[in-house]
Write a structure and sequence with these properties.
The chain is of the alpha/beta class. It has a domain at about 45-70 and about 85-240: Rossmann fold, CATH 3.40.50.300. The protein is about 30% helix and about 25% strand. The chain has helices at about 60-65, 90-100, 115-125, 130-140, 155-170, 185-200, 215, 235-240, and strands at about 15-25, 30-40, 45-50, 75-80, 80, 100-105, 175-180, 205-210, 220-225, 230-235. The strands form two sheets. Strands 6-7-8-3-9-10 form a six-stranded mixed sheet, sandwiched between helices. A hairpin with a 2-residue loop joins strand 9 and strand 10 (about 230-235). It is globular, with a radius of gyration of 21 Å. Mean pLDDT is about 90; it is low at about 240-264. Bound molecules: adenosine-5'-diphosphate and magnesium ion. Adenosine-5'-diphosphate binds near residues 32 and 55.
């Protein structure tokens, strides 16, 4: 009889590892330096907001993270696999299996039911049990009762929930959302963020581009871009948790300084 060796837990690589990432677009004779050396690690179950002014490189970064585009310099490892220099067809395969997208404009097929909209990408990536997975995903966003509705029979918030279900059904490693609440009123935006919150609580890794402070505040980490560079990277728990030790620890017995964080 062959003894089975004990299984050792191998630490899993970060979901995302970017090292000195650059993206240069060529427009005629002009070069646009959209990303200028982004180094960034994102672990499983992080809940990240990416902020920054228009033109700072947010969408460029999301497109690369989502394997829609490749960098012109630097490295991108997705779960340990170098995806910086793959062919379009290999990237498409990775997108289908590992990335869930949510867009500002929902991007649903208009003459197709919610259920079919959720099912369709799984057809391309050859996933099995598509109907069951689509129904489960719609249930998770609390939209099972609208499965047979067409997009024009749904509210904005419901459309975005269908889009979220479509991303979830693929059971992706990461969900990338570019301004997911940008086309919604604030109450509906909150409703969508509540779904993101619960996905985070269930272990999903989430990256959300937003220019709205109240949306970013729901995330656990905020990364701010300016001119294609990271100018700020704060983990909220680090900043706000009263139990987090600070670098300049007060001597034992010293009064705890009152926090000034969060004051308007
Ligand atoms: N496909 C493209 N071709 C050329 N320039 C682009 C392209 N996409 C974006 N850019 C430029 O790259 C910079 C970053 O754009 P983008 O990533 O869309 O910023 P953001 O999403 O933060 O508004 C901008 O200067 C923009 O004009
Ligand atoms: Mg953008």
């Amino acid at each position: 009889m062959i003894a089975t060796p004990p299984i050792r837990a191998v630490p899993s690589p970060p979901v995302i590892e970017l090292v000195d990432l650059h993206k240069v677009y060529r427009v005629g004779v002009e070069l646009v330096h959209a990303l200028q050396g982004i180094t960034l690690t994102i672990q499983e179950n992080e809940y990240v907001a990416i902020m920054g002014p228009s033109g700072s490189g947010k969408s460029t970064l999301m497109n690369i993270l989502g394997c829609l585009d490749v960098p012109t310099g630097g490295d991108y490892r997705l779960r340990g696999q170098d995806v910086s220099r793959l062919s379009q067809s290999k990237l498409a395969l990775i997108r289908g299996r590992q990335i869930g997208f949510v867009f500002q404009s929902f991007e649903l097929l208009p003459r197709t039911t919610a259920l079919k909209n959720v099912e369709l990408p799984m057809t391309y990536s050859g996933v099995r049990h598509r109907r069951r997975r689509a129904l489960e995903a719609l249930k998770r966003v609390n939209l099972l009762d609208r499965a047979h509705h067409h997009p024009n029979q749904l509210s904005g918030g419901q459309k975005q929930r269908v889009a979220l279900a479509r991303a979830l059904a693929q059971q992706p490693d990461i969900i990338l959302a570019d301004e997911p609440t940008g086309n919604l009123d604030s109450a509906t935006g909150e409703e969508i963020m509540a779904v993101f919150d619960s996905l985070h609580a269930e272990g999903q890794t989430l990256i959300i581009v937003t220019h709205e402070d109240h949306i970013a505040r729901r995330c656990r980490r905020i990364i701010r871009l300016i001119d294609g560079r990271i100018v700020l990277d704060t983990a909220r728990g680090d900043v706000w948790s009263p139990t987090t030790p600070t670098l300049t620890a007060a001597p034992a017995g010293a009064p705890v300084p009152s926090s000034t964080e969060g004051t308007p």
